[in-house]
């Protein structure tokens, strides 16, 4: 019983900053950030949310974030699925060496490759465009590895049966293996989308105009160039956090399962 | 099956006694394989392997991205070993990473043990959700929020600590407290991840073994130390390695909360230093040399993981 009480307290402490955030973001400016803290939003206002676009192009930033996340996720999944199939099912010269080289690249931190990639993007004229973010994200070595491991658990007899019936590799991959890999694909979708959506390092390096920024970097820009007040910053943080929380609560089980199965720490 | 067998025979036949291997057997098969991997390989070369090699190359040059690069041999590396700010950044990063590993492992294990007991579904759901949700929020939002939460005038931590008679420092202007504050924020953001990993590991411990120990008269603490923890050692080891790797590359919260590296550079981390050198003062060669150092640490830890998981860890 004591342990349960402690757990409840820990849970409430974890949630407290979030509740405080949301409450301040709907409290009129005069009474926001009061001491002692107010935990019930009475009186109540949505005005701060209306003031966000006066400071940063919030809608544009949200669309940018969405665009980068969708292209990165869909693109890298397609690239990974094709490569994972080759590494799992096809034999070709140099396959194992190639796989090993790609796997070792998991040790290379992104901070190491980012400088040459920046130079490359500058030469391509892609600095301060969204392509600078999603192009490098199309290759996700971890996802290739993860999907290949999953494909290896699908019985090969199925392929052979399909082959005898005259099926080609693309048919086997997209009509048989992909539909059988639901959990693995869901895990990679969630992880890739989340990493892209929350990415701060990449946008910080590649983006400079507010119209081209994604939400995380836009939030920080809003706070730094604070023409508005703290309540508007809080409203912006709330507007970024709440949709993510809603998606998380709706798909909590798959979220937690995919992160546990992949063992990736952001 | 027969098809593969025939190919295997043909392949073997095509190995000439001299040793130079010609394999006419599978050119078509090779081509199919290459076609499937080619998008990944092409992207890998352009965005991973190429830049990796380029970064190693750049570390032997002095370059500001504007004027032509100048070959300087090992100058960047000798400079690195004599750079007090880099040592400071390394020390901060190691302190942060070790503190992160200890707090996450202890906290994650205790919470997993506490949640893995009989309790109401509602409480279990609430605790698990409350522990995990910060992990899905972007660091940008988390860092900004916590800057306010810890604010010395209107932050809630300041207020409630004061109610309890504890006076809190002005976290981000006090060199002694800036890094501990970041460690705390990181704990809030990432503990859910460690907790989930620990909970999954805990559920692999066979109940029969715990029961058997209890029948033999072991008490709760003995079971924990002599049954549960040894059986969970692969999970604990994995969590330690992955926490260390993540923490060693810490950048977002320190950059957002203390953009200049905090009071007395007390929150300057290695990746932050690399960012400053590369993208603020445009010393690309030097930044590349520092990035090579980060890579070496990553590689060392990964190799340690390989060796360690064979040697140290109790496997069933």
UniProtKB/TrEMBL annotation, chain B:
Keyword Membrane: yes
GO process annotations (BP): transmembrane transport
SUPFAM superfamilies: MetI-like
Domain ABC transmembrane type-1, chain residue ranges per copy: 90-305
Topology term for the membrane: Multi-pass membrane protein
Signal sequence region: none
Primary location class: membrane
Cellular component, GO annotation: plasma membrane
Keywords, in A-Z order: Cell membrane, Membrane, Transmembrane, Transmembrane helix, Transport
Intracellular or extracellular location(s): Cell membrane
Protein name per Swiss-Prot or TrEMBL: Sugar ABC transporter permease
Organism of provenance: Streptomyces triticagri
């Amino acid at each position: 019983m004591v342990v349960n009480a402690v757990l409840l307290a820990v849970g409430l402490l974890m949630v407290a900053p979030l509740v405080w955030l949301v409450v301040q973001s709907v409290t009129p400016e005069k009474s926001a950030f009061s001491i002692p803290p107010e935990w019930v939003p009475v009186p109540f206002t949505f005005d701060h949310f209306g003031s966000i676009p006066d400071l940063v192009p919030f809608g544009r930033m949200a669309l940018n974030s969405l665009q980068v996340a969708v292209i990165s996720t869909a693109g890298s999944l397609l690239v990974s699925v094709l490569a994972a199939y080759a590494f799992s099912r096809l034999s070709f010269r140099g396959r194992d060496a190639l796989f090993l080289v790609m796997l070792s690249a998991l040790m290379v931190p992104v901070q190491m490759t980012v400088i040459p990639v920046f130079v490359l993007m500058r030469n391509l004229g892609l600095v301060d465009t969204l392509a600078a973010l999603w192009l490098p994200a199309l290759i996700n070595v971890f996802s290739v590895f993860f999907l290949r491991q999953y494909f290896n658990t699908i019985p090969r007899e199925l392929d052979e049966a399909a082959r005898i019936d005259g099926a080609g590799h693309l048919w086997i991959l997209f009509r048989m293996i992909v539909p059988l890999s639901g959990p693995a694909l869901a895990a990679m979708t969630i992880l890739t989308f989340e990493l892209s959506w929350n990415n701060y390092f990449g946008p910080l390096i590649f983006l400079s105009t507010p119209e081209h920024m994604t939400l995380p970097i836009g939030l920080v820009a809003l706070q730094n160039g604070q023409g508005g007040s703290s309540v508007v910053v809080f409203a912006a943080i709330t507007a970024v956090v709440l949709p993510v929380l809603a998606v998380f609560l709706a798909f909590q089980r798959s979220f937690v399962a995919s992160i546990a199965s992949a063992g990736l720490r952001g | 099956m027969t098809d593969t067998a025939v190919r295997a025979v043909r392949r073997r036949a095509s190995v000439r006694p001299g040793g130079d291997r010609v394999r006419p057997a599978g050119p078509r098969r090779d081509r199919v394989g290459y076609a499937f991997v080619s998008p990944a390989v092409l992207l890998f070369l352009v965005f991973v392997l190429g830049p990796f090699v380029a970064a190693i190359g750049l570390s032997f040059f002095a370059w500001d991205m504007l004027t032509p690069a100048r070959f300087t041999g090992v100058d960047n590396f000798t400079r690195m070993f004599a750079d007090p700010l880099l040592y400071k950044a390394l020390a901060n990063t190691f302190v942060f990473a070790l503190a992160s590993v200890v707090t996450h492992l202890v906290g994650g294990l205790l919470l997993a043990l506490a949640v893995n007991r009989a309790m109401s579904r509602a409480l279990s759901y609430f605790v698990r959700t409350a522990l995990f949700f910060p992990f899905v929020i972007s660091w940008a939002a988390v860092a900004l929020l916590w800057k306010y939460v810890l604010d010395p005038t209107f932050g809630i931590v300041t207020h409630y600590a004061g109610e309890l008679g504890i006076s809190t420092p002005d976290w981000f202007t006090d060199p002694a407290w800036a890094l501990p504050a970041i460690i705390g924020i990181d704990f809030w953001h990432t503990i859910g991840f460690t907790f989930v990993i620990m909970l999954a590991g805990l559920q692999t411990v066979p109940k029969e073994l715990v029961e058997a120990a209890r029948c033999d008269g072991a008490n709760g603490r003995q079971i924990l130390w002599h049954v549960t923890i040894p059986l969970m050692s692969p999970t604990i080891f994995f969590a330690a390695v992955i926490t260390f790797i993540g923490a060693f590359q810490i950048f977002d919260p320190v950059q957002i909360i203390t953009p200049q590296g905090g009071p007395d550079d007390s929150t300057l981390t290695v990746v932050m230093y690399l960012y400053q050198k590369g993208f603020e003062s445009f010393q690309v060669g030097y930044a590349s040399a520092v990035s090579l150092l980060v890579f070496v640490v990553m590689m060392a830890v990964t190799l340690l993981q390989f060796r360690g998981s064979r040697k140290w860890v109790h496997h069933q």
